[in-house]
Write a structure and sequence with these properties.
2 copies of one chain form a homodimer. Chain A contains 16 helices and 19 strands. The first copy, chain A, has 451 residues and is an alpha/beta fold. Chains A and B meet through α1, α3, α6, α7 and α8 of A and α1, α3, α6, α7 and α8 of B.
């Protein structure tokens, strides 16, 4: 995080903080960040965004310029602004590793800290987890639909701004994409950078084949030709000429790309034409408004596509461009420093109180069979998914290399039943509430009702 | 733009650029950035994003680190990398002013430059216009639905990342929103910052009323109380106690906020209770999954809401989280430097060739009645919407103050028929193709067909 992002928060975090500063300087609280319900057709989510959160924690500072701005708002006392000028996070954070598979109501990040500090980071935490987890979940669906085919991210032009432009490729790569067209993301995160050519390139030449030839001469070993600018069949024929020309020179044409039209028909035709010309090694790329639904249909109907370029629909999570991600207080200390569990009791928006852990149970073959949402101190069988990543303000977790996170996500997902990973899932993974948590909830509901 | 954003581009921009560097160093081209078709229920768009584009043009540089990264890709020649190291934009850019209302197929940005330079900025231009125009269009719909009520942006927690977190409030403000909860956006763009309190704040106190009192003591002149954490009716009663307490001390409670439940019922109840208590001046805020459809319904059914807080649905443009925004080559110079018009002829994806302008015609009363998409040199009656903003690489346009852009958008939109601005629009604004452009298209289609 750059320093100038410290004010990337809702104003009420600061006004509440000032009130806490006056009334609750010594109060600690725990907040859970979780997703209330999964979007349509999602049967699981892929945790993503922790790297940015840890970066944020390590760099959160209010600059003199920030403080001057806040001072001009006529809301904040000199004392409070002085407090902000020396702000540092002192709490603990537990979180799921990036690439962890998780479900509704499971805390993915848990913050225990002075209430003022835990509150101030609400907006940033939500914003970060929302984008990256949403994209990783969507991208994972696309990867599942593509089966053994590779999928590449082409979404930069339609992602929501510059930050999404680099975070989407990272999240998609974690979820199993094989590369990105976004050079900055490729550079920052060491993701393979990929690309073909645009229609405008083809159109800038007099004849389509002139453009193919020029590109092939420039990148003889790395050419993928876009064949649908004018007439696709003619485009394939021209690509074959180039393929044969490269072959003569000892190079292999990498592929052709279909970006419009009937992909099933055209890919079969292209495969046949390429094979007959002795270019069986030339791969066929498909792109153009693809998503998991379309990819599944294409493959089911025998499309001869080797690699997919997926853009907008994944990069905006178009059918569900947000998660119902929330940050809820679950316990708060009383005047003696003792943590008391808390819950909200509005209709249809009940939350789970207390300091919790998620336990993942497996069967004898190592397959995951259910999660138990329980209290941290309960003895429950299963792997605890939340791990301590910040201890008394100090970041104690080092984000693994991106490749490792990607492997972790893949292996992790591989241990769930295939039914979870269908494009239209036929299975709901069981998340059980532990006896201890159930009891606590009931007892609190009784108290609140009487209040 | 920060320097490190120069690589925020698709890899193919760079590979094509290297090919242009070899084959088309002296070739100029014109590109149109436009939206192919409007998303469902949108009858107009609001141009937004030009400020960032001009900033980008002024700062586009490849750093030594960028060049080292590119060099490692094994794709680029030393000569080409040297060219990039001295890269500067030399072209002309014409664009619609921010706040301009526009329609499908109308160029909102037009670039004429050496083809290599025009190509390199494709991804950034598309990414920028897509986000900001999409949000301004969605936000404008929300503002229209709210009529005389004010609308505030609360979307930070669900916008797609950090950049969207500040660009969404700016775009929404241009479209008529009255403020934002995002402090960084408020600071950077001089937008009014607004906020209330969170459920967690209320829950961090023993009793709801304790939290209200603490907040009111901290901000006696600026308190808006969130009343739905436990029982909303009881929350309103507690808010009234605080309102009366503040009144005694010479302050006015600003408002209460309803964030869940039956807003129609609860707002009527709250209004009645507040009025009976002599707190007629206390405003009622509503929030919670609002959008233009819900706001229209609430108001039609008599909800007594004064101000709306709108978050996720606007900040992600949830029902249409992308625009079909594209960047198409429309002319290119031949070996003699003469511009030749170009168009794409794939099925269902035909483009308009040549260097174009958009002319807006009005009736005698000053109301806009139709646009004419024509060739720049045609003599057509109507206000030309594209203005020159970059001349031979130099930015010659100064972005007006945000308030001015906002006024321009409002006045501008006011000159269209109300039917255009309905939540479900009953009117399609006519965009006519000029005789000159029609003729050019036919002649090119003929040539391409024969090719």
């Amino acid at each position: 995080m750059k320093k100038e992002l410290s004010l990337l928060m809702d104003l009420y975090e600061l006004t509440m903080a000032q009130s806490y500063f006056i009334y609750k300087k010594n109060t600690f609280a725990t907040f859970d960040l979780f997703v209330r319900g999964l979007p349509p057709n999602r049967a699981y989510l892929v945790a993503c965004g922790l790297e940015d959160i840890l970066d944020y924690i390590g760099n959160l500072k209010f600059t003199p310029e920030d403080l001057r701005y806040l001072s001009r708002q006529g809301l904040f006392s000199r004392d409070f602004l002085r407090y902000l000028s020396g702000f540092k996070f002192h709490g603990d954070i537990w979180a799921m590793a990036e690439g962890e598979i998780f479900f509704a109501n499971e805390p993915v990040v848990r913050v225990t800290a002075p209430v003022i500090e835990a509150q101030l980071m609400e907006s940033f935490l939500l914003n970060t987890i929302n984008l990256q987890t949403m994209i990783a979940a969507k991208a994972s669906r696309v990867v599942q639909a593509a089966g053994s085919r590779r999928v590449y991210d082409f979404s930069l032009r339609r992602t929501h701004g510059q930050d999404a432009g680099i975070k989407v490729p990272r999240s998609a790569y974690i979820a199993g994409f094989s590369g990105t067209s976004c050079v900055l993301a490729a550079k920052l995160y060491k993701i393979p950078a990929v690309g073909t050519m645009a229609h405008s390139y083809v159109m800038s030449f007099k004849q389509e084949i002139d453009s193919f030839l020029a590109y092939a001469e420039t990148f003889p070993a790395k050419t993928i030709l876009l064949v649908d600018t004018y007439d696709t069949k003619r485009g394939i024929k021209s690509a074959i000429k180039i393929g044969l020309y490269l072959k003569e020179k000892g190079y292999r044409l990498q592929g052709i790309r279909l970006d419009s039209g009937d992909i099933i028909l055209l890919s079969k035709l292209a495969r046949k034409m390429l094979d007959e010309a002795g270019l069986g090694y030339v791969k066929i790329f498909a792109s153009g408004n693809l998503d998991e639904f379309k990819i599944k249909k294409l493959l089911a109907r025998g499309a001869r596509v080797d690699n997919f370029g997926v853009g907008t629909n994944m990069g905006t999570s178009i059918d569900a461009p947000c998660l119902d991600v929330i940050y809820k207080i679950t316990e708060v200390t009383d005047e003696n420093g003792k943590f008391l569990p808390k819950m909200k009791l509005s209709k249809a928006k009940v939350t789970y109180p207390g300091r919790k852990q998620v336990f993942r149970a497996q069967d004898k073959r190592g397959r995951f069979v259910k999660d138990i949402l329980g209290l941290e101190k309960e003895k429950i069988k299963g792997r605890p998914l939340l791990m301590k990543v910040v201890d008394k303000g100090k970041v104690i977790y080092k984000t693994p290399a991106l490749e490792k996170i990607r492997d972790f996500a893949r292996l992790n997902l591989g241990r769930f039943t295939p039914a979870l990973k269908e494009v239209i899932p036929s299975y709901k993974y069981p998340v059980i509430v532990s006896p201890g948590l159930k009891k606590l909830r009931q007892s609190l509901a009784g108290q609140l009702g009487k209040n």
